[in-house]
Specification:
The protein has 12 helices and 7 strands. With 285 residues, the chain is mainly alpha-helical.
Length: 285
């Protein structure tokens, strides 16, 4: 079950698991982080109840979690669901996870550790748009497909070029590692009407603030982690960090979190429309 942020996926997955004897498996790239239970909208223990939940909150924010690592965790979760005799129900908003689950990953060779370390060292403190310009000079094809505000994917492309002297696209043809066959699954994308969804996003961000999102970010900030790490770039985190540094008012930081959430939802719709053809869209009002 996929869908944009704040579409009610988690609650519906729990209901479905209770009805069908299922286990809920996370397919959201931020809900894996133990440091972000509030801003990732991870279900609380009360909401989970007696329904097993797998691949939630098991990764520290210091780790650079990836689609490949998630796919390995998803394979282990499928084995655990089979052992329990429960129906696996994948739920989340990360389209790349669902694409990998059903179609596998591109067969990209591993970047040597020394190359990765060198590229990361050269990128330390460099603004994302400048990193994007570096990539555009080396691999314009890949650069044209990446947002300048996405340093993690930009760094990945730079590492590939540095290691192999070839564009990322060279290695993206063959895919391997699919875990499920879409023809044997019920693939659903929850698609609320946009205005309704945006109202839900705004209201949920206000609830997150009431639940302690600012303190959650304060603890994360105190760890002094690399700002390029996915957890530090999670929706809502950058604005609240800017507030804690005195760069934004709390009101402006909250508005930024809501705006970034709405923009993220737009990208989730676009990805599902173009990359997840097997999913049935369920319109919600």
């Amino acid at each position: 079950m996929a869908g944009p942020t704040a579409s009610g996926k988690s609650a519906r997955a729990i209901e479905l698991a209770r009805e069908l004897g299922g286990v809920v498996i996370n397919a959201d790239s931020m809900a894996v982080y133990q440091d972000l239970p509030i801003l990732s909208a991870r279900p609380s223990s009360e909401e989970m109840g007696d329904i097993p939940h797998l691949v939630f909150g098991h990764i520290g924010a210091e780790r650079n979690y990836s689609v490949g690592l998630w796919l390995a965790d998803a394979a282990a979760a499928l084995d655990e669901a089979a052992r329990m005799g429960r129906l696996p129900i994948f739920v989340g908003g990360t389209g790349m996870y669902f694409k990998a689950l059903l179609h596998g990953l591109s067969n990209i060779p591993a970047v040597p550790a020394e190359v990765r370390a060198r590229v990361r060292a050269q990128a330390e403190g460099v603004p994302p748009d400048e990193l994007h310009a570096r990539l555009r000079a080396r691999d314009p094809e890949t650069a044209s497909k990446l947002r300048p505000s996405d340093p993690q994917r930009i760094l990945r492309a730079l590492e590939i070029f540095e290691a192999f002297g070839a564009p990322l696209a060279t290695f993206q043809g063959a895919r391997e590692g699919a875990l499920l066959d879409a023809a044997l699954c019920h693939c659903v994308f929850l698609a609320p009407e946009r205005e309704t969804l945006y109202d839900r996003i705004n209201a949920r961000f206000d609830r997150m603030m009431e639940q302690g999102a600012l303190e959650e970010v304060r603890r994360l900030m105190a760890r002094g982690l690399d700002p390029a790490l996915p957890a530090v770039r999670a929706v809502g985190v950058p604005g609240l960090i800017a507030h804690l540094r005195g760069e934004l008012s709390l009101e402006a930081a909250v508005e930024k979190g809501k705006r970034d959430s709405r923009q993220y939802a737009k990208r989730q719709f676009t990805f599902a429309r173009t990359q997840l053809p097997a999913f049935e869209w369920v319109t919600l009002t």
